[in-house]
Amino acid sequence: xxxxxxxxxxxxxxxxxxxxxxxxxxxxxxxxxxxxxxxxxxxxxxxxxxxxxxxxxxxxxxxxxxxxxxxxxxxxxxxxxxxxxxxxxxxxxxxxxxxxxxxxxxxxxxxxxxxxxxxxxxxxxxxxxxxxxxxxxxxxxxxxxxxxxxxxxxxxxxxxxxxxxxxxxxxxxxxxxxxxxxxxxxxxxxxxxxxxxxxxxxxxxxxxxxxxxxxxxxxxxxxxxxxxxxxxxxxxxxxxxxxxxxxxxxxxxxxxxxxxxxxxxxxxxxxxxxxxxxxxxxxxxxxxxxxxxxxxxxxxxxxxxxxxxxxxxxxxxxxxxxxxxxxxxxxxxxxxxxxxxxxxxxxxxxxxxxxxxxxxxxxxxxxxxxxxxxxxxxxxxxxxxxxxxxxxxxxxxxxxxxx
Length: 403
What we know:
2 domains, 18% strand
């Protein structure tokens, strides 16, 4: 197998800066961090740059094009929080020209619950939804257990539960999951050894999720500032939080035009994606983004694990303000705005999500890990916007063509 030695770069190993080391790739893996250049190795001179683990977006809704675009921005893994993938579709994205994928499959939601407002009504299929239909509803604990068992048997990786009344997203008056179904879904996920993750965009929804034993919150709540009791409960429970500040910024009416104006962003996007990124959803204009930023700061101070995620989906203008890959870099900037240090923000897109999702082969630059790497110019451990100065990306040791 081909051996590559990356020399002269400052190395952030996923947890900390370890200084200037030679990183040796042997095929798809990292063979050494430090030491001499092996005889016959292809040498990549990375002087003036910083080598990072491949970045992880911990909240997406994606397809093969989204995975390809993500990799262009150095995101080597996307964690999908709701979507239907057949085994054939999963097999078709196994190459090294797209980001890797993990998926929750479809979320646990009641009839009339989020996100059914985006599709046919609950009574559209009186004989039951066809196979693969995107909104399989759960009214009882038994139905939730059955659905979870079926999805995990199909190869999905964790469980998503929807707690949404339409106050922040969707439409007011949505049917909300009951406590018995919520608790049953969490219990069933844990029985199978899988994580349970909650969509909750209100403080009340977050409280219900934590009480039910949820492993992670897929959003920061948007309906108020951090209450000390919920922060303490989250910290005590060991629940992780993926704030998705990018989507909250968009939902509260902040367009992504300033971020999209960065040539390092615009040069890598199609006109359609660039138009989407410049927009905003503006579905919750009464929300206060500063409240969400303050809540992130409170959670960080309480030693809660923060994960970088964007909730990016398609270039539909209705979901404007985000783009696959690019928005992870925007999320990192927003996390720093919220009070995280650049190193803490980088952990949120590397080692922390890898640890929380059991992805033991990535998120770190260490011998034996996958050779998922991003080389950037500058020093994002002090200036977070330098993550966008991408010089090279490797996915399982395969160097990607320049964007």
